[in-house]
């Protein structure tokens, strides 16, 4: 058995810390976003708030760190499939329709599965038996977290699941692109926020439904600061660093912890309680992720 504490360079541990930071932000993203969407803001409003703040704080990165070593068509591909406006709208529409636990399971718990499949199909990267078993365990545990709600809830929640799966696929495509085209964290900040804000904000202002004028100012401030600084800034830096340090499969394997953390956070914040089966699923996901890390 490999012992991560022995003989590994500090940079590897920084990769692990970055991956854990992404878990913390993505889990908070699910809970805080659903809180904002259930308080009256539209999915388009929350997306706009995210990119207003994100574009302002990352403007220097566009000027200094635009990835000039990457062809324009590839940059546009990453802008579209990265954690930008399209991804944000998809996720927020899902969260407006489904409980937070669903997002954790289907938007994040499936990322390592999509990533492994795409890495095999596009890059020829094969999983060993332990990694394959770990992903299977993660999937089984994630399904336990969402199974009871899936059987009891409405078609509207099923629609939410479809949105979450789409978001999961986009993240998987993005992390593989970041590694393939060797983008640094500063490069990813340069291509995500300002280009997406430039395209999305005029569309939102002139054509999309908005409740921003009637929303509580507290809700607006919370969403703007968290969305812009959390998933719009820190998570992009940490995810990019983790992908280069740990590889795409292991990095996205950490996303399997998001259902656990988000479900626990949703208890005090959203009042969404967990059943015994969901707790078993949480422990199963944790075991699967531990196995995925151990096989490294």
Shape: globular
Number of helices: 13
Largest β sheet strand count, sense and barrel closure:
none
Sketch the topology as an H/E string, one letter per element.
Answer: HHHHHHHHHHHHH
Quote the average pLDDT: 86
Approximately what portion of the residues adopt beta-strand conformation?
under 5%
Class derived from helix and strand content:
mainly alpha
- How many beta strands in the DSSP annotation? 0
Written account of the structure:
The structure is a single chain. The chain is globular and about 50 Å long. It starts with 9 loop residues before the first helix and ends with a helix. It has one domain. Helices cover 80% and strands 0% of the residues. Helix 5 (100-108) runs antiparallel to helix 12. The chain contains 13 helices and no strands. The chain has 296 residues and is mostly helical.
Task: Detail the topology: elements first, then pairings.
Elements: H1 10-38, H2 43-65, H3 72-81, H4 85-97, H5 100-108, H6 111-123, H7 129-152, H8 155-180, H9 185-207, H10 217-246, H11 248-253, H12 258-270, H13 276-294
Helix pairs in contact: 1-5, 1-10, 1-12, 2-4, 2-9, 2-10, 3-9, 4-8, 5-7, 5-8, 5-12, 6-8, 7-13, 8-10, 9-10
Quick overview:
The chain is mostly helical.
């Amino acid at each position: 058995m490999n012992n991560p504490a022995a003989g590994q360079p500090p940079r590897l541990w920084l990769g692990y810390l970055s991956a854990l930071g992404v878990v913390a932000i993505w889990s908070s993203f699910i809970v805080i976003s659903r809180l904002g969407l259930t308080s009256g803001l539209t999915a388009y409003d929350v997306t706009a708030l995210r990119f207003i703040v994100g574009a302002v704080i990352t403007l220097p990165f566009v000027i200094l760190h635009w990835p000039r070593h990457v062809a324009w068509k590839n940059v546009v591909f990453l802008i579209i499939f990265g954690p930008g406006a399209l991804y944000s709208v998809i996720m927020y529409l899902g969260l407006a329709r489904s409980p937070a636990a669903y997002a954790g399971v289907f938007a994040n718990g499936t990322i390592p599965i999509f990533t492994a499949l795409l890495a095999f199909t596009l890059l020829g990267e094969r999983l060993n038996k332990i990694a394959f078993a770990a992903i299977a365990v993660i999937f089984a545990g994630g399904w336990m977290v969402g199974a009871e709600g899936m059987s009891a809830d409405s078609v509207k929640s099923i629609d939410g699941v479809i949105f979450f799966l789409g978001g999961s696929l986009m993240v998987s495509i993005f992390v593989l692109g970041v590694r393939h085209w060797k983008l640094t964290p500063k490069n990813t900040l340069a291509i995500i926020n300002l280009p997406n804000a430039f395209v999305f904000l005029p569309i939102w202002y002139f054509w999309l439904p908005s409740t921003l004028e009637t929303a509580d100012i507290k809700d607006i401030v919370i969403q703007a600061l968290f969305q812009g600084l959390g998933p719009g800034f820190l998570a992009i830096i940490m995810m990019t660093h983790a992908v280069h340090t740990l590889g795409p499969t292991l990095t996205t394997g950490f996303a399997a912890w998001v259902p656990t953390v988000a479900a626990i956070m949703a208890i005090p914040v959203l009042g969404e309680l967990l059943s015994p089966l969901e707790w078993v699923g949480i422990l199963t996901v944790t075991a699967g992720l531990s196995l995925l890390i151990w096989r490294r």
